[in-house]
Design a protein that fits this description.
The chain is α/β, with parallel strands linked by helices and about 200 residues long. The chain has 6 helices and 8 strands.
Length: about 200
């Protein structure tokens, strides 16, 4: 996708919304979760501080490289990414509506094959927390759904669906990930496993 561009709308789960004081009790985690949905069940907030800037810049750092002399990450210059993020009443699960333009436009079959066959270092090393199949493509028109798909591969996998051609960009699709497992706790554990496997963490 070098030289391409990406636009996406990111629908973020609502764990961080503030609750009434009566529910700020560490002994009632279930009530706390229910209160979040009850209070914001009919609302969507079109602003999450810092989330859009982070979502546009962080992928470029992943696609960049490490400058050994300066000892810092040099971000990639492409693809160009623009996004908007919306807080929605979902406890777990980030959903993204993505539009992609390629320098060389692939077919739908090529895209699905690339997604489902993608395998990274965690899969190659067989790390305990690594999903066996990192990305799953959902053939149904109404998938992925948070209620049905967010726990795919114990929350460590990614769901993609509704891949179709676009009239402005080349392709569009919907992606779903578990923000508190893949995006936070589970992702941190997987990083630790990778550091251990590659010799960065050793016994003293």
């Amino acid at each position: 996708m070098a030289g391409g561009s990406v636009f996406f709308t990111f629908f973020s789960a609502s764990q961080r919304l503030q609750l009434p004081a009566i529910f700020r009790l560490r002994h009632f985690p279930c009530l706390k979760r229910c209160a979040q949905l009850l209070r914001h069940g009919d609302d969507a907030i079109p602003f999450i501080g810092g989330e859009e800037e982070k979502s546009e810049k962080e992928p470029l750092r992943l696609w960049g490289y490490v400058d050994d002399e300066k000892k810092q990450i040099v971000p990639a210059e492409s693809p160009v990414i623009t996004c908007q993020c919306i807080r929605v009443p979902v406890l777990n699960g980030h959903t993204a509506a993505v539009f992609v333009k390629f320098k060389k436009n692939p077919t739908k079959e090529q895209l699905i094959e690339a997604l489902e066959k993608f395998s990274g270092v965690p899969q190659e090393l067989g790390l305990p927390s690594a999903p066996k199949q990192f990305i799953r493509y959902c053939e149904e028109d109404n998938r992925p759904q948070v209620a049905l798909d967010v726990d795919y591969e114990h929350g460590m996998g990614i769901n993609v669906g509704r891949l179709r051609e676009d009239t402005v960009y080349d392709w569009k699709f919907v992606g779903l990930s578990h923000n508190t497992v893949r995006g936070a706790a589970g992702g941190a554990v997987l990083c630790a496993e990778l550091l251990k496997a590659q010799g960065y963490i050793t016994k003293k």
